[in-house]
Amino acid sequence: MNSELQVWLGTQIQALKDQHLYKIPKILETPAGGRVRMNGKEVVNLSSNNYLGLANHPKVRQAALDSIERWGVGAGAVRWIGGTMSVHEELEERLAKFKNVEAVLVFTGGFTANSGCIPAVLTDKDVVISDELNHASIIDGVRLSPAKYKKSEGCVFEHKNMDHLESILQKTQGFEKRMIITDGVFSMDGDIAPLPKIVELAEKYNAFVMVDDAHASGVLGKNGAGTTSHFNLYGRVDIQLGTLSKALGVVGGYIAGSALLKDWLINRGRPYLFSTAHPPMVAAALIAALDVMENDPEPMRRLWANAKWWKDALAESGFDTMGSETPITPVFVGEEKAAQEMERLLWEEGVYALAIVFPTVAKGKARLRTMPTAAHTQEDLEFALSAFKRVRDKLSVGV
């Protein structure tokens, strides 16, 4: 091994530890749920994206098992070479109907969907106009494109500030294409993008809109169809990204839009072109998860009931949830060291709630990011709330 590399790595890791930014993942030893065993300890899990509990749903599990018997465990090729099975096509058709669009193209992940779509639809004659709190996958996707995009060049608008967005649109009218891109639900704050106003401004200034609905999928809109459905903006949002690994409980991401967009991404979306297709059991499990979402309202009802109870209980107990409007419920702490210590003490109390620190959020904006789900019981949430109160009193961190 190269000793210079090892020395550099060791120095960088120690710097992370010194700044209280170092992370060690916990190991899940049971299926994802409201109560789990991690690192040999039973805890209430408040750090899961399994919003609707579908990762363990019996219909979803059975669909995966049946698919293995029929299709085997792998597609055997990149999709355009020969790895597209009829079950992949069925999933895309179901998703297009679910999203009320012409077509959907599935990628292996939400991150790769952004990094595949954004560079494919932009040229060096274009500009991206992006909310400052957009997800890292959006930022990386934009960086891979040749389009103009720098905060210093005035292409990033202040979070949800529509006056600032309009001023940028006014200044960028000389570009060939202008893409406004935003999260539908912001992943670290839990607030919802003002999508109607964004669409209105895009139409006024002849721009187009892309919305990343990773945390709105299964959470907002009819049967969880996302923010376009939530705001009834069908036909007015050009590109929608959805996730298959959160509310749907499996893995993957997709781009929803026109048939022409799908055709273009099949030919120019690099992660699609150079990644082996999902195992067929993934596609089959996702179809079953869609069936549950579309026909059983109970998981979504439980999700929102649990989220409301949790938010109200935290607020009544004096915690700052940062204006969250969705099940993503940050508990503001501030300093990185205090947030990581709070995570550690909660773990000792039997609650897993991840500390979110720089660079995921700005320095001095550390928080505990909690996620009540349909899989939590009332007892789980009451147990977690008591733990939060005890830990706060021990730390006196000002939350």
3D architecture notes:
With 399 residues, this protein is an alpha/beta fold. It has 15 helices and 13 strands. Helix 14 packs across helix 15. It is globular.
Overview in brief:
This protein is an alpha/beta fold and 399 residues long. It is built from 15 helices and 13 strands.
Quaternary structure annotation: single chain
- What order do the helices and strands follow? HEEHHHEHEHEHEHEHEEHHHHEHEEEH
* Mean pLDDT across all amino acids: 94
Task: Tell me how many strands there are.
Answer: 13
Question: Radius of gyration, Cα only, in angstroms?
Answer: 21 Å
Q: What low-confidence regions span 5 or more consecutive residues with pLDDT below 50?
A: none
The helical percent reads 40-55%
Structural category: alpha/beta
Number of helices: 15
Termini Cα gap: 46 Å
| Beta-strand percent range | 5-15%
**Largest β-sheet summary:** 7 strands, mixed
Q: Which sequence of strands runs across the widest sheet?
A: 3-9-8-7-6-4-5
Write down the overall geometry: globular
Helices and strands in order:
Layout: H1 3-18, E1 35-38, E2 41-45, H2 58-71, H3 79-83, H4 86-99, E3 103-107, H5 110-120, E4 127-131, H6 136-144, E5 156-157, H7 162-171, E6 178-183, H8 195-204, E7 208-212, H9 227-230, E8 239-243, E9 253-257, H10 259-268, H11 270-273, H12 280-295, H13 298-316, E10 329-334, H14 336-349, E11 351-352, E12 354-356, E13 366-370, H15 378-395
Parallel strand pairs: 2-11, 4-5, 4-6, 6-7, 7-8
Antiparallel strand pairs: 1-2, 3-9, 8-9, 10-13, 12-13
Helix pairs in contact: 2-12, 4-12, 5-6, 7-8, 14-15
